[in-house]
Structure formats: C-alpha cells, structure tokens
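writing this on my phone so excuse typos. first protein, seq and then structure
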Amino acid sequence: MQTPPSTTPLHPIAAPFFQKRGYGMLAPLAAIYGGVMTLRNKAFDCGLLPTKKADVSVISVGNLAVGGTGKTPHVDYLIRLLQPAFRLGVLSRGYGRTTRGFRLVSAEEDAALVGDEPLQLKLHHPDVVVAVDENRVNGAARLQKTDRPPQLLLLDDAYQHRYIFRDVNILLTDYSRLYPLDRVLPAGRLREPISGSRRSDMIIVTKCPDSLTVAQADTIRTLLSPRPEQSLYFTTMTYGAPYALFTEQAVPSLTDKALLVVSGIAHPAPLLHHLSAQGAQVKSLNYPDHHRFSVRDAEHINRAFEDLPGKEKWAITTEKDAARLRHLRGLSDEIRNHLLVQPITVRFLLEKEEAFAQDLRKRLRNVRPATKH
C-alpha cells in the first residue's frame, strides 16, 4: 500500500485556523454555544443527565470537531484487530439516511436507508452485526436481543452521545486540524470545548504524514497535553490497490490514463494528490460530504466521463462513495464498466501498532473472548 504524501505543515507551528475573516463577529455566538455545551457536560458529570451502562462492553470512536477525521477507517481497523477474539457489533447513527430508529444493516441495503458509512463497514465485514440508531442506548439494547448478541460494541461517531456508558473512549483529531488550535462552532469547527478531550482514554492523531518524526510527535504531545492515563497515538492513511465496482475485470496501471475522480467526502485533496502522483491525468467532480447522488448527478457524471480526452479513460471513487453509487440509477454502461474504487486504510506510525493493540486489550481485560463465531 502507498501512503498519501503530506501537503500540510506541522500544525503546532502553523497559524490557528480560527484566525480568519469574520471570527470576531462569530465569537459571541461561539461563547454562547460553548457555554451551553459546558453546562451539558457538567450535567452529565454530576448525574443530572443520565448515562446508562449497556449489557455489553462498549468502545466509542469519535471526535470533537465536525467533518472528517477518519472515524470509519479507524472503526474498520478496530474490527480487523478485535474480530478474531470477540463477537463484535457496530452501532452508528447512520448520518444522512432517510429512515429513523433502529435498523439492522444488510450488504444488499441501499445507503439512503442506513447511511453510507455503516453500509461500507457491513460490506467490508459481512459477519459483523452492523446497526443504525440515533438513540445509542436503544440501539445497544436492541442488538442484545438479536440471534448473535455482540460481546463488544463499537460506536461510530458517538463522542458527544453521553447517554450511553463506554468502557473505552477513543478520541480522534486530524493532524492538520488539531483541536487545541480550533474554536467551538460557529467560529470554529468544534462541537464542544476542548475540555471535552479529558473524557477520552486514548487519543489518536489521524491523517499524519508518513514521515512524521519522534520530535514532531513530541511537539504535538506538548500541544495536546494528554493526562497521564491518556494514551496518545499517531496514524496515517494508506491507499490500497483500486478494484472495479461493477465488474470483475483487472485494473490497469493508471499512469498516463485520463481519470475522473467522483467524490463526496469532507477532504478530497489528499486523494486527488495521491492519484495525480500515480501519473493519472485527473479531473475531479467534488460533491459535499455524504452527498446523496441523484439521477441528475448520474447524468453529470456520464457527461464528464465522455468529455475526458483519449481512449484509455477510467473513473474512480472512494469506498464511502461507492456505497452510495452502487445503487444509483442512470449511470451509463461506459461508466459502470470503468468505475474503480480506491480503498483507504489506517496504519499506526512510530512502530506503535502492537503497543496500541496491547493497550486496548488491557483496557478490555474484563470482556469475555468469543468461544465461536
């Protein structure tokens, strides 16, 4: 696998990204919002708002900021790490879905009904029970009533959902958008004040450059100032070999090929940089994160593909987008025969992969291993 090149300076020496035009006007609103979230957290801390212990051990993966920090690839990593020892379940809100309430996810599901990220996880791990429910307490209880109740439940994007107790709380922060350099909404991107980071057991700095040094990691550690009981790790995103979405054909080298990149993710720039570095002649169609593709979008994609120069041309998308595109009506046969998927996975840096695994297992020492799958 290839690691995406870094296009971002080390953030501890970069200007905070809330230093922008309009920040002063938004600061009063941010102060009000931050105060409300502080009061909410205090209400949970003192028991005025309830936190319920589920009948299963829980790992939560989330972040302080809105936008992509790589939560789903990290949940995917945890599944691969833990599935040999535990019968796992995954519970997500199912962001962007048209349904409400509890729903089990099947591999044949339309992403519009369950959300693209839960469907992506189910397609990767068909033996793992994946469900969606905006009420995580209810969702956890419903999962325990299924034929194969999980021994360990992974919550995707649940850091602020404090109504359910978690045995391990994992906080992600983007290397290029570290939370100490941010501000709460609407002046910045934080869902709650940075004091909320103290609730985490493990902090992972995501999307780091592959060349991250120990000295740079130490600088970030100083900035984040984790408590002694909080573990700090660093990960990078790696790109695997593309595969065809609708066909079984072999995928050629993309060097010198005209390539249409169709993406509806929060930050497509690293993907575009990676594909350009492979020698492809890249043209991109960028949609909003979690975009629900329509027949009109399909027509737009068809035309953009037809307009690519040359005879050897391909289209490519992310696995998250593929979960939404696989049932899209209106894609031409030409697109369907040439649409590739770019897998993205997580890798721990500074030779800490085994340290992370041991740390997590230690925190889960009271969870009973699976006797059969």
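second protein below, same order as before
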Amino acid sequence: MRTMKRAAAMLFALALVLGSAGAETMSLNGTVEAGVTVPVYAPIGGTVDNVALEQGMHVNAGDVLFTYKTEKTYASEDGTVTGVFVQAGDDAETVAGRYGADLYIEGTILYTVSSSTSKAYPSVDTTIVHTGETVYLVCRTDSTRKGTGIITGVEGSNYSVLVSEGNFVIGDSVTIYRDEAHTEKLRIGRGNVERVSPEAVTASGAVVSVAVNDGDKVKRGDLLLETLSGTFEGYEMTGTAVTAAEDGVIMSVSAEAGAAVNKGDVTARIAPVSGMRVEADVTADDRKLLKAGDKVTIELESDESKSYEGTVRYITETPEEDVEEVTYKAVIDFTPDESVYFGMKVVVTSAE
C-alpha cells in the first residue's frame, strides 16, 4: 500500500512538472525577411550593354548581373604597329600624355615631300597645283631614284606630296612633274624627301583590352583597343561584367541596357541569403517569456518536416504601429538552407 501511494505521488508531481512546462511553451507566427540589402555599385563608368537580372531573381556568387559596352578604337589606315605603350587597366589619357600616344601605327606610305612651286617651269599652269593631283618625282642627284605621289595639301606656293611609290632616301632633293616622262614644261616644283611620322593613336578612359602587339600588321578598320569611361581601382582591369558578390535575391534593379552609368552609381540591390532572418510578432504577455539570446525552434508552415534552430537577436522596445493589439517584433537569426525563401511563413516555438 505504501509503495502504491509513493508511485501515485510521483505521477502527480510529474504531471505538475509537465503541466508547468506546457504552460511556458510559447508559439509565434513569423516571416522570413531580408535582414539587409546590399547595393551593387558600378565599378566604373560606361554604357550598360546587357542586363541579366530582374527583381526577385535568385543569384549565386559570381553570376553576371550586367555587362558594359566598351568604346572601341580602330585603325584608320593600313600599316604596322610600331609601339604599344598601353595595357589593360591603364588610363589611356595618362599613357598618351607620357608617350605622346597609346600606340603608334607606321603606315604603308613612308615618305612625304615638302614642295614649292618656286622652282616650277615658268608658266601659269605649272605654278598652280591641286590637292589630289598625281605627280611624278625624280631625285636630282640620282635619276634611278624616282617614284609617284599625290598632292595632299596646298598653301600658297607650298604643297606637300605623299610618296605612294619610289625608292627614295630621306633627304633626297627631288624634282616634281605632272607626267611620268618628266617633261620639262610640266615641271611643277622641287622639294625634299622626309619621313612620314607614324600615326599616333589615342583613346580616353580605362583600357579594357589591347588587341594588337608591337610589330603586328593591321588593316584599316582593325580593332586596336577597347576602353570604358573613368579609371579602374588601382588600375587593375576588372573586366566588362559586373557579378554578384554573394548568393542572394535581387530586390531592385536600376541599371538599364543602353543607359550610361557613372562610377559609384547604385545599379541594383541584393538581399544576401546570409542575411536571412525571421521576424515574429510578440504580445506584451509573451514578451516577458522571451529575451535576446534565447534558443527557439523555427518550422516552415509549408513543410513541417523542416525545422531550424534559431537565436533571438533582439526584441523591439517599442510596439509595432498600426495594429490593434500591442505587439513587439522579435528578430531571430538562423542558418537557412535551399528550402527557405524570403517571405515564407514560419512558426517559432520556445519552451523555456
């Protein structure tokens, strides 16, 4: 009999304990929210070429968000690249200021003649020359050195001739005629052979890529280099694509294809997965039972088999506005997995 009474007392005590524990169990309704949003800044100025993101999309670290359209510099004539002073990441204008150009092209026409009609055959026709006129030249000291040229500029009695064919030597004094037979009455002047200066190629902005090397042969219209406006941080070329720094969800997009952006402009905002948190409403009575640092269990309403351990980060000291009942907001940190999305409804339980 005494044993039965003792067992009954123990069962009664256990019931009290369980009942007490049940009374202290708290259940809250909450939502998975973005703790922070991270701005995506334009790393450099330029024109947006393609936007690969939309609001609400999930992105992984390294995914391309948008790309820039580069400014391209092309060869204006056939020739040989004789000096490349610029490289990817450089500021093109700074390099040009130091070396006179970003790169040089030595054209297929190597010689020019600074000429004058002062030594022309004395007639009205021979003392008047025309831009674009084809002329014939012969060296005054060695008649085997001869060639053909075209008048490219006229200023009074002075004019210049680009030598398209010939075996001249720089410094040669030449006589210029209107005919290949070098008829005396068609002599239109004399001049001295000079070297044509290589074409100085300059660009502006940050260099993205250089398409040629020293010594390369190029044709008119060949790509030489590509640039973006502004300068790269530390002159380190970071490319034409802007990528996500971490996994997250696109909350807003301001970049538009074809639109210009400046360095530092906010082009999008991402809510990182690492910043996910649960926000739950807490009544005034329940607030007494919960405090920062408490461990809680989080269950997905859509899948009760999924539960996560959370920690209360803080509970607001001021009540939520625009609600009938006085409630406070509890912010709970947890580690989500691929089953968790922003906006999901959850149930938070605590049994302190």
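The domain at 111-195 is CATH 2.40.30 (Elongation Factor Tu (Ef-tu); domain 3). thats all i got for now
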